[in-house]
Amino acid sequence: MTTDLVRQEVKSTDGIKHAKKEVNWTKYILMSLMFLYLVVFLLIPLVFIFVKAFEKGAEVYFAAITEPDALSAIKLTILVAIISVPLNVVFGIAAAWLITKFQFKGKQILLSLIELPFAVSPVIAGLVLVLFFGPRGVLGPFLDEFGLKIIFSVPGIIIATMFVTLPFVARELIPVMQAQGKTEEEAAISLGANGWQMFLRVTLPSIKWGLLYGMILCNARAIGEFGAVSVVSGHIRGETNTMPLHVEILYNEYQFSAAFAVASLMSLLALVTLLIKTWIEWRTEKH
User: Fold this and answer.
1) Domain range spanning residue 28?
2) Worst-scoring range by mean pLDDT, 28-37, 63-72, 166-175?
3) Same structural domain for residues 99 and 61?
4) I want to staple 260 with a disulfide (CB 3.0 to 4.6 A). Which of 53, 85, 150, 218 is the partner?
């Protein structure tokens, strides 16, 4: 009897060891595939961008990123991000608060509408804006009477960018606010706090890392947006070209070093965004 128990224990131990070996092999295969994918589709193209950017020397590189059209594209990209991100932050906070703190009919419809920019192609979104605000669009003639120009100007670029970046802040805040619940806020109200005091002292400290994370993602998309902005911008050099559009024009004109130089700036912004995103994730996990 004892011998049989020993044999069963040995078989069980061997089975566990065999299962662990299979798990380890699976883990190593998945890690290798992931590493290979990242190297081929991320690291090599990123290195290639900087190699091509400095291919003709630092002098050509700095000349490409400091010439007037490039500076105009950089300034416009920053301006669009500075305007669109805070507006989407306000919308994201309001939408997340409404969805998580109140019960009302049509909540699922509102959630679906917030997700709409992810489902609609940016090019289609740009075309819709042209149909509404263009010179021959629904509101175009009315706006022309007041001297307002939306399409083929900076306001159109801002509206298009706001549309494609609309979901990011709300998507990050909704699960955070759902996890937060209402107990602390109701306690603050019962103790005499008004709405702003409750938001600043109770709600905001609880959602600050999720809010920052959403802002980083929103800003990254705003800087790199191409499709919708390309449709509504008109590609006017020095006026309505953002950095992605400027890179496209330089590349189409066979100015490859200049195109990769401006692209390298966008890559640097992306790397900085990634570092900030990683830091926020670490702080969020620690918190």
Assistant:
1) 17-53
2) 28-37
3) yes
4) 53
